[in-house]
Specification:
By secondary structure, the chain is mostly helical. Helices cover 57% and strands 7% of the residues. The longest helix is centred in the last third of the chain and has 17 residues.
Length: 87
């Protein structure tokens, strides 16, 4: 997901645990309920038909993906470990 986001691809995904922590429906992606093929297809058709939506999703996704670069992730983990050790 993060690779697609950082590449500027509009993302259509299911609202599954783990995915919903990375994506925001209507902002960084279009999300559909798990195992709902019709909803997934509808979201894909919507993205394909709406150039403005594709651009908006792409821009928001690229910005959100910056929070997952190595420096940001490492800083977050170091902060977490420090809080856990301090206790």
């Amino acid at each position: 997901l993060v690779e697609a986001m950082s590449s500027g691809l509009p993302v259509v995904a299911t609202d599954a645990p783990g995915i919903r922590e990375v994506l925001t429906d209507g902002d960084t992606a279009l999300m559909a309920p798990c195992r709902d093929a019709a909803a997934i297809a509808a979201a894909m058709e919507r993205v394909l038909a709406d150039e403005g939506l594709r651009r908006r999703l792409s821009t928001a996704a690229r910005q959100a993906a910056c929070g997952y670069d190595w420096e940001a992730v490492t800083t977050a983990y170091v902060g977490l470990y420090r809080r856990l050790i301090a206790g």
